[in-house]
Amino acid sequence: MIALSINHKRTITAAVLATLVTICLVLGLRTTSYDPVSLWKSGTHKGERLAYALLMASTVDQSEDLENDYYFVATRIVIWQLLHNPATKSTNGADVFVMVTPDVSESRINRLKKDGVKIRPVEVVHTPNDAWIKPQQPRLAAMMAKIRLWEMTEYSRILFLDSDFVLRSSLDGVFDDPNTKRVRTLDKAMSNFTQLEGEAPLPEAYLLASLSETSDSNHDFPPTNLNSPEYMNGGFFMLAPDLVMFEHMKSIMDIEHSFNERFMEQSLINYVHRKEGPMPWQETKEQWCIRYPNENDFEQGLVSMHEKWWTQPYIYDNQKVKDFLRAVRWEMKGWYDGRESVTDV
Question: Is 34's pLDDT higher than 70?
Answer without folding.
Answer: no
